[in-house]
Amino acid sequence: MSDTGTNDVGAERAKSAADPAGFAPRERFAAGAQYIDGGLRAGTSDRDHAVVDPATGEEIHTYRLASTADVDAAVASARAAFPGWAGATPGERSDALHRFAAVLGDRAEEFAQAESLQCGKPLKLSREFDVPGSVDNAAFFAGAARHLAGQSAGEYSGDHTSYVRREPIGVVGSIAPWNYPLQMAAWKVLPAVAAGNTIVLKPAELTPFTSLLFAEAATEAGIPDGVLNIVTGAGRDAGEHLVGHPDVAMTSFTGSTAVGKRVAEIATATVKRLHLELGGKAPFVVFDDADLEAAVHGAVAGALINTGQDCTAATRAYVQRPLYDAFVAGVADLMATVRVGDPFDPDTDLGPLISHAHRDRVAGFVDRARGHARVVTGGEAPKSPGAYYLPTLIADAAQDSEIVQSEIFGPVLVVLPFDSDDEGVRLANDTPYGLAASAWTRDVFRANRATRDIQAGCVWINDHIPILSEMPHGGYKASGYGKDMSAYSFEEYTQIKHVMYDNTAVAKKDWHRTVFGDR
Ligand code: NAD
């Protein structure tokens, strides 16, 4: 698409980027962009991948993608590390993760710069959300590692003692998307290794840097070589090879629902444990007693976080008729104040989308909606060499239209009116997805009904977006299954073993008569 807007967004990297902690990917990853067996090495496929700064369109690093042989080497390293790591005491794993959290904290600025550079996300978002969230995750799983409890033991038959062991599964193969590369690495790696598994993580090709830094930090913290390996390769070859690998016991995937279905097919053929965190299309339901100012602010923040490239972003606002016009006007006015610009400029609120191809995809959704819906604000790309798209509000779209039903993954909010409370909740549930949702009301009964009736893995009341290390994140319906973060993620990364001891020391047990002999 062509840039149609009139608001220029500067191509020049803001002066603030000249921070002494600045991150230089060509130097950092001169040795290669695969992290296998405790060190960086070059990929051995026959393809290079150019990482482009989405804010400027400039190439910032080119690396050799992983081959299937690189995946084999990473899996072999993880497999070799498994007995030692699984055999470490919970206290030893916990200590290592505490050190890991400390190293991540010490290197926070480097992580923030790397994340902003590769994703185009405002530095204030990387500094205040992505990086501290990941440090907190590491600290949480350091503590959780010592609380891997099975159920209580007991003499359930009268003649035996039973107890439950919660054990690691083996080598986990994880695949992550580009929207929050550091947090996705943290969500995938930390519960897995806290539980005693070893892991091979494949980040998205577009955004390899912070996953590689994460693995380096793990080594610096004393986590043994091979426990955490990174292969940066293409989905179709390195990704599918990892999912189908016979020595990988579990696949943990975060990404689109379309790719998740393909991953599920391959994983199922080899009977792997499967964890799927997929797409979202979060509803934002505003009842007529809501605090309008809070709802307007919540909608703009919830829709535009990470330039809308957030699986839980507010994408469909359903507003009860009495507040509808004021909500539309309030959101449009507030969106117009959002400062679109260089991610490294401290004044920037909204950075570019991840790539020009993705920007064009987002623009395509909006352009196709123009015939049957009203673009209240935005709906265009500003003049810029970067992959920018303006905050966009769309009204008057039909519930069954593409713009309401499909995941756009950009700074686009659709707003629709509703009349009865039941209709609001019914419309909120009317997409294939069910990752997250919010309801806005001052009425405790309405809030309670909304939390009960909305089909999503997370329902916020009078807020939208916050996440916590202690609380589970994961979907309903086509948004997948399995939970990230929280003690619940241990369910995903452990297997349960029933151990049963005979207490009678009798050779001829009473139950044998059901197989031979008489009482
Ligand atoms: P994507 O599905 O295109 O890619 C995700 C990952 O899968 C990448 O690493 C990619 O290389 C890999 N991949 C692609 N094809 C593959 C294949 N055939 N086999 C194995 N791996 C393959 O998603 P994306 O565009 O990177 O990320 C955006 C999507 O991620 C959105 O749908 C978003 O909602 C979703 N997401 C979900 C969550 C969640 O927690 N539910 C979190 C973040 C992002």
TrEMBL record:
User: Per its record, what are the GO molecular function terms?
Assistant: oxidoreductase activity, acting on the aldehyde or oxo group of donors, NAD or NADP as acceptor
Coiled coil start-end: none
Q: Which residues form the active site?
A: 277
Which controlled-vocabulary keywords does the entry list?
Oxidoreductase
User: Region entry Disordered: which residue ranges?
Assistant: 1-23
Query: What Pfam families is this protein classified in?
Result: Aldedh
- Among its keywords, does the record have Nucleus? no
- What PROSITE patterns does the annotation carry? ALDEHYDE_DEHYDR_CYS (PS00070), ALDEHYDE_DEHYDR_GLU (PS00687)
Top-level taxon? Bacteria
**Transmembrane recorded as keyword:** no
Q: Where is the Aldehyde dehydrogenase domain?
A: 47-499
Please give the NCBIfam families that the UniProt record associates with this protein: PRK13473.1
**Family per similarity comment:** Belongs to the aldehyde dehydrogenase family.
UniProt protein name: Gamma-aminobutyraldehyde dehydrogenase
Q: Which organism is it from?
A: Streptomyces triticagri
What high-level taxonomic lineage is stated for the organism? Bacteria, Bacillati, Actinomycetota, Actinomycetes, Kitasatosporales
